[in-house]
Amino acid sequence: MSPPSESSNGISENDLINCNNDDQELQDKTAKLEANNLKEYLTSYEDFLDLIDQQLNKIETELMTAVKFSSLVLEMLIPWVLMV
After folding, report:
1. Residue 12: which residues within 8 A CB-CB, separation 6 or more?
2. Is the pTM higher than 0.85?
């Protein structure tokens, strides 16, 4: 086996290989962190959507109550207005 050659800047092939391996490890760790962050983000986003859905359901209920009440008032007033 031939000894590792050195380039003009004093960096050997082994140094470059080790550097590439370190870069790959860093990329792998970064990818894992990004995947975990994405899972946490999606979970919090789903929680956010659930909260919005609950709030919209409350608003829908209040609007339906207001519509029913106003319909009831109109039903009571129409005969009285027609009598005048």
Report:
1. 4, 5, 6
2. no
